[in-house]
Amino acid sequence: MTPESTDSCDLLCLDLPVAEGIRSRVSKTPDLEAAASAAKALADPTRLSIAVALAEGGELCVCDLAWVVGQAQNLVSHHVRLLRTAGLAASRRDGRLVMYSLTDQGRHLLHVLTEAMKSSSAVLR
């Protein structure tokens, strides 16, 4: 049996009452786009490592972040900007420095992701 043959039913059937109930709830979820965008922002290894560094450090400038994650400052700056756009990071100016931190949403999403990874790692052992 090929993997493709196990991906869908061999018979077209629909449990209409169940499917309609689920469809109405899913369709009315206005936050799906925002949730997908936030998850996408952490789907890059560099951005994920930046988020972990911010979770550990609390508030860091791009220079510190670049050194911590081992990437060029301009690349880290770009990735932090994407995290900010997704609502996962915030910035504030402190004299000549711009300090970055995770937002509540960023901390929560990172926590959920790292806990899920811990659980799946335990299952895979």
Give an overview in words.
The protein is elongated and about 65 Å long. It has helices at 16-27, 32-41, 45-57, 62-69, 73-85, 104-124, and strands spanning 60-61, 89-94, 97-102. Helix content is 62%, strand content 11%. The mean pLDDT is 86. Strand 2 (89-94) and strand 3 form a beta hairpin. Helix 3 packs across helix 5 and helix 4 (62-69) packs across helix 5. It has 6 helices and 3 strands; from the N terminus they run αααβααββα. The chain has 125 residues and is mainly alpha-helical. It has a single domain, classed as Arc Repressor Mutant, subunit A (Orthogonal Bundle), CATH 1.10.10. A 3-stranded antiparallel beta sheet has the order 1-3-2. The chain starts with 15 loop residues before the first helix and ends with a helix.
